[in-house]
Structure formats: structure tokens, C-alpha cells
Amino acid sequence: MRILITNDDGINAPGLKVLEAIAAEIAGPDGEVWTVAPAFEQSGVAHKISYTHPMMIAELGPRRFAAEGSPADCVLAGLYDVMPDAKPDLVLSGVNRGNNAGENTLYSGTIGGAMEAALQGLPAIALSQYLGPENFAEDLQFKAAAAHGAKTVRALLDDGIWDGEDYRLFYNVNFPPIAAEKVQGIRVGAQGYRKDSFFGVEPHLSPSGRKFLWIKGGPQNLPTAPGTDVHDCLDGYISVTPMRADLTAHDTIATLKERLE
């Protein structure tokens, strides 16, 4: 199996090393793992593509490249420059430092990389590691993802739904913020919504008196509704959410037709 991996935390991120190990186990001894990741951190860029300016790409080692672009850019670089003669069988994005569950999903560059792969017609999985009091220490952060990542990916490859729709399915996986041995299993659920947690801005003055704004996130430990990703992770489970890039609110179409047409 040929696997392309990327992330949004950057080419030197520890989560990417975890993903490299996961991908190597899935690819097997006769497979190939290709890495195309951002040269610098690209957290929060969502599905951005850099179509208004070029990006530099550099080969850092065998099958290992850094691109000055977003995760979606990196997937495009992988498919059409790094691996043009034989597309990958699977694209993996992550392992993100921090959860990409609930409303975080909409901002996530990790999700953006997987989404671009799906739009290119390829099987894709985004993987993120939830952080909390039990695993926030640097040496503990990715233990759950490292221990359970390969078998979660393999379970999706063996038993997941892989359709050929125009907006084809891809998967969002979040590992819970607990020790690896405490993980309860896998739960499939919808994208949740933290009702009292929002992004905002925090102003600061520079020494010269100029105002700068830092984007500030809300609490990450607020549970979402049962059966959704944040709730499942905080309950000790690996959350798996099937996703599509189609943003249509299909549940409103019939009513709007009656009212407007």
C-alpha cells in the first residue's frame, strides 16, 4: 500500500512522527509512506489552498517533503508533483496536537488535508489527539494515538464505508485525552457542538503602543450531546465521525422549495 501523510502542525511536529509510525504499520514491509507536510505550522487554516501565490517545496529526505503551504496544498503537491505517476491508496492527516472535534472541525487544517484528498477521489482519514489533564504533559500527549492509531485506521479500511460519491466520505478520528490503557474502544458519532465555547479575540498592546489581537479559543472540556464526538472522547472512547465536504443543509431543501419557488 502507498500512503501519503500530511498534517497542519508542521513537518517537525511530534504528532507527525506518530503518524509516520501508524502509516508504516498499515503500509507493511512492501509498502511506501510518503510525507508532504507544511514547512511551518498551519493550524486553523481549514481547507485553504494557496492559489494566489506559489509555494516552495523542498525534499528533506527519501519520500519526505516540506511545502510552504497549507495541508490541502500539501496534498495537491503530493498528488501532482511528488507522486504524479502513481497516486496513493490512502491519505492520512495528523496526528494533530489537540482535538478536532465539535466546532473545531470547521477550522482545522488537519481536516482540510483529508477533505482535499476526498475531493480528489481518494480514501482519507484525519487523526487528532484530544488533550486534557491526564495527558497534557509532553511525554504523554500522543500515547493513546500511538497505541490505538494503526488498529483504528485498519478497522476503518476493513469495515468502514468507502463510497464513490462526488462528495465522497472521509473520516475524522479523535483519540481521547486519557492514558492509552484506559481507552474504552471506538464509538461512531456525529460532529458535536459546544454551546458555551467560542473563538474570540484578546487585545494586547505592544511596547510601541500598537494594538494586536490574539485569537483565543474557549474551553475544550465542555461536553456535547450524547452520540457526538466530544462527548464520546470525554467518555474515554475513540470518536469516529464520517464526513463529506458538501455543506448543503439538506434537511431544509423541501421546506424552502415550498416557500420560495
Automatic annotation (TrEMBL):
Function text: Nucleotidase that shows phosphatase activity on nucleoside 5'-monophosphates.
Identification of the protein by name: 5'-nucleotidase SurE
Cofactors that this protein relies on: a divalent metal cation
PANTHER family, sorted: 5'-NUCLEOTIDASE SURE, 5'_3'-NUCLEOTIDASE SURE
InterPro entries named among the record's database cross-references: SurE (IPR030048), SurE-like_Pase/nucleotidase (IPR002828), SurE-like_sf (IPR036523)
Enzyme superclass (EC): hydrolase
Domain Survival protein SurE-like phosphatase/nucleotidase as annotated: residue spans: 3-195
Range of residues in the leader sequence: none
One Gene Ontology cellular component: cytoplasm
Gene source species: Actibacterium lipolyticum
Subcellular localization(s) per the UniProt record: Cytoplasm
Binding site for a divalent metal cation: D8, D9, S43, N96
Pfam families reported for this sequence: SurE
Cofactor binding, per record: Binds 1 divalent metal cation per subunit.
Protein family (similarity comment): Belongs to the SurE nucleotidase family.
Reaction(s) the record says it catalyses: a ribonucleoside 5'-phosphate + H2O = a ribonucleoside + phosphate
GO MF entries: 3'-nucleotidase activity; 5'-nucleotidase activity; exopolyphosphatase activity; metal ion binding; nucleotide binding
Keywords, alphabetical: Cytoplasm, Hydrolase, Metal-binding, Nucleotide-binding
E.C. number(s) listed in UniProt: 3.1.3.5
Chief place where the protein resides: cytoplasm
HAMAP family in the record: SurE
